[in-house]
Amino acid sequence: MGIIVLGHGSKAPQALETLRRYGEMVKVKSRCEIVEVASLQFNKPDLPEALDRVIIMGAKKVVIVPFFLYNGVHMQEDIPAVIAMEKVKNPDVEIVLANHLGADHRLVEIVLDRIEEVS
After folding, report:
1. Where exactly are the structural domains of the chain?
2. Which of 8, 74, 100, 105 is catalytic?
3. Active site annotation includes 8
4. pTM (two decimals)
5. 48 in Cβ contact with 86 (< 8 Å)
6. What are phi and psi of 5, to 5 degrees?
7. Which of 38, 39, 107, 118 is the right S-S partner for 50, CB 3.0 to 4.6 Å?
8. Would you say domain 2-118 falls under CATH 1.20.1250.20?
């Protein structure tokens, strides 16, 4: 199995580095050998490039984990459109999209930590 941690992307150079750090943390915690990061916009690799990488590494199933808080246009239209094209290119690979981060109580702890840091 392969995992792709998908971020929105940013023109700010530190954004890609942060995404890469998340990718490394996911790799360690998941114990999955094939973990890549991708950006929907602005940065490389983009989603098709990351999918190519994990498939070349041997993944027969790829889980795309979007680092998005909302189920907006990217989640509903843009990402599924890319996945549909990639499924045509790679019919022998199962490509699935995990849910967005959403309103998860575990994120509240991080918010509270950030408030505490500046209080």
Report:
1. 2-118
2. 8
3. yes
4. 0.95
5. yes
6. -90, 115
7. 38
8. no
